[in-house]
Amino acid sequence: MPDIRVVVVDDHAIVRDGLVALLGALDGVEVVGSAEDGRQALHVVGETTPDVVVMDIQMPHLDGIEATRFITGRHPGVRVVMLTMNEDDETVLSAIRAGASGYLLKGSGAEEVLNAVRTASAGGMVFGAALAARVASYFAAARPPVPERDEPFPDLTDRERDVLELLASGSSNDAIARALYVSDKTVRNTVSSIYAKLHAAGRGEAIVKAREAGFGRGER
User: Fold this and answer.
1) What mean pLDDT is predicted for residues 47-54?
2) Which of 217, 213, 206 has its CA nearest to residue 150?
3) How far apart are alpha carbons 109 and 111 in whole angstroms?
């Protein structure tokens, strides 16, 4: 299996260099670039086409959330894992809506960071232990914004609904392919179609919209 290609983005040189050294020393990971702000990150990602970007939030010129929105919009195959000191609910949810596939707090151990990079690369979502329960509570508390008799997302095909159901439950692309007995390529194409029909910038925003409509919770 090829190494997971990673770009590190952080405006503090000592943190950025530390992350590059940490990730570069892990088996199965190759650091292919780094950037000191969101604007530079867009250039580096365009040049290197990584699998995963490890992204800080508070940065000059272009913050991590806006950079994530641009990256996931321009490069749908690139996953972004936020690694930041910010843990307020509004920031976490803004990152998810921007397309982030993971959210960790700085101070996370090497194994937790590696797990997040691997999970994001495989198409899943991951949150640090301190955040997972809060994110789950938000999803559980979400209420469908449409009347019960209305079928949400009427433009979706039956296959897309099946995929969205699994997507909303947190399944990775690999797990969806196994559950539906289809190829990974079919899942990727279907997920991309779902993003377009839901007007979602990425996986996180699609999951938020799906959960609010009852997908992934057995309420449809």
Assistant:
1) 96
2) 213
3) 5
DSSP structure string for 164-202: HHHHHTT--HHHHHHHHT--HHHHHHHHHHHHHHHT-SS
CA dist., res. 13 & res. 69, Å (int): 23
Same domain, 58 and 93: yes
Note down the domain range covering 59. Answer: 4-137
- Which of 46-55, 167-176, 207-216 shows the highest mean pLDDT? 46-55
Q: What is the DSSP string of 89-114?
A: HHHHHHHHHHT-SEEEETT--HHHHH
Burial-class residue 190 by CB neighbours within 10 Å (0-12, 13-18, 19+).
buried
Residues 100 and 187 in one domain: no
Packed helices 38-48 and 64-74: angle between N→C axes, nearest 10 degrees: 30
For residue 90, how many other CB atoms are within 10 A of its CB? Answer: 8
| Half-sphere CA count of 186, side-chain side, radius 13 A | 13
- Residue 46 tokens read as 């365009």
CATH of the domain at 188: 1.10.10.10
